[in-house]
Amino acid sequence: MSDLTHFDEHGASRMVNVGDKTVSQRIARASGLVRMLPATREMILQRGHAKGDVLEVARLAGIMAAKRTADLIPLCHPLPLEALNLDFQPLADNAIRIEATVAVTAKTGVEMEALTAVSVAALTIYDMCKSVDRAMTIEQVQLEEKSGGASGHFLRKDTCGEKGLS
């Protein structure tokens, strides 16, 4: 268990001590995909849902969730987020790609905040549209890029794009 930083040598859970880490600018970018019927996608893009603007509600939900990540994920450090952008991109005729970019100047990274923003935005789209399309799926929630800290820069080489859709 000693290779896993969230467990001590006896296997007990612990919050990682970041006290000796250097404060640095840290940025993380995550993405995810919501697949749906073409009619559902069109309704969302045309802002035609009776419940309101689905993407704007999802954007707010994702931002709010990222700010509460430490309350949702055990052992995650609370961070004073400095910036969070949540964008939506229609793909093909049956999907919407979600991308979150989060920034902080801190001793630990914001990967979990970016992933949480994407996940909750996707869940919000599902929740708002399930009455018209129960077959929607949430797929490929993943870290795309991170920078800052001792581990350096990470960039996913197989990023999700329109060519990746089947």
Number of strands: 5
Average pLDDT figure: 89
Structural class: alpha+beta
Distance between the termini: 39 Å
Describe the protein's architecture and organization.
This protein is an alpha+beta fold. It has helices spanning 38-45, 54-67, 69-72, 111-129, and strands at 24-35, 83-91, 95-106, 137-147, 154-155. It has a 5-stranded antiparallel beta sheet. The chain is elongated, with a radius of gyration of 18 Å. The N and C termini lie far apart (39 Å). The model is unreliable at 162-166 (pLDDT under 50).
SSE topology:
Blueprint lengths: L23 E12 L2 H8 L8 H14 L1 H4 L10 E9 L3 E12 L4 H19 L7 E11 L6 E2 L11
Antiparallel strand pairs: 1-3, 1-4, 2-3, 4-5
Please name the defining characteristics of this protein.
166 residues, alpha+beta, five-stranded antiparallel sheet, 28% strand, disordered C terminus
